[in-house]
């Protein structure tokens, strides 16, 4: 197994739900609006014996030529968008789902950004996003997910994908947020999305105001940390600036992004 964090950079976010780039070497967090949170945006590429997995898809930022930053990050490590075989979505907030689509100017419509991948998204998460109750979602093109041959709509509260990827609705951060456990060679790689976003939060009794059910999310983090430390899980932290992964991979390989 090989794990590659695909960092899109550091950002602050406040009640406006806008992600503002933050350069840790020069910017001052105190100069940002009151209550601003400092986070990394960090999808993960996980290469297993069966698949090249992408876990969440970042903000969806593009350069001046319209090239998706996530595609650029893949290229830095020798991979192409067409190499990705499965895209696992914890939830559809815009900092996690922004790179699901890319705009095709030739046909003037959005298309899925990973042409050979199967996307795994929970049906209830799409339905909830489309109700328009939260500014955390950018629902452009979400309707197309219901009738797309590349998309598998997960229906159950928990289940197994392809015999080795467990998913479970945990509903701490958002009502239909789900987490994934990748099982290979007697090891577990755990991706908790925004319910296990940073290493420090795993170790403290922290109730986040931005969670739909902050108490539940806190309790889940404590449970996962206890289980994971004991069973030597590999944790993937989507929003951690300093520690994208935690745990030993043994003979596997973890790639650090400089």
Topology:
Elements: E1 2-5, E2 10-13, E3 19-21, E4 37-40, E5 44-47, E6 52-55, H1 69-76, E7 86-88, H2 94-97, E8 101-104, E9 109-112, E10 118-122, H3 123-130, E11 151-154, E12 158-161, E13 165-169, E14 178-184, E15 187-191, H4 199-203, H5 214-231, E16 234-236, E17 245-246, E18 253-254
Parallel strand pairs: 1-18, 6-7, 7-10, 10-11, 15-16
Antiparallel strand pairs: 1-5, 2-3, 2-4, 5-6, 8-9, 12-13, 13-14, 14-15, 16-17
Describe this structure in words.
The structure is a single chain. The protein has 258 residues and is α/β, with parallel strands linked by helices. It has a domain of 168 residues: Metallo-beta-lactamase, Chain A (4-Layer Sandwich), CATH 3.60.15. The strands form 4 sheets. Strands 11-10-7-6-5-1-18 form a 7-stranded mixed β-sheet. A 6-stranded mixed β-sheet has the order 12-13-14-15-16-17, with no helix packed on it. It has a 3-stranded antiparallel β-sheet with strand order 3-2-4, with no helix packed on it. The longest helix has 18 residues. The two termini are 20 Å apart. The mean pLDDT is 92.
Structure in a nutshell:
With about 260 residues, the protein is of the alpha/beta class.
User: What's the CATH H-level homologous superfamily of the domain at 2-23 and 37-164 and 237-254?
Assistant: Ribonuclease Z/Hydroxyacylglutathione hydrolase-like
CATH architecture descriptor text of the domain at 2-23 and 37-164 and 237-254: 4-Layer Sandwich
Radius of gyration: 17 Å
**Structural class computed from helices and strand pairing:** alpha/beta
On the 0-100 scale, what is the average pLDDT? 92
Distance between the termini: 20 Å
The best one-word shape is globular
- What summary fits the major beta sheet? 7 strands, mixed
The CATH class designation of the domain at 2-23 and 37-164 and 237-254 is Alpha Beta
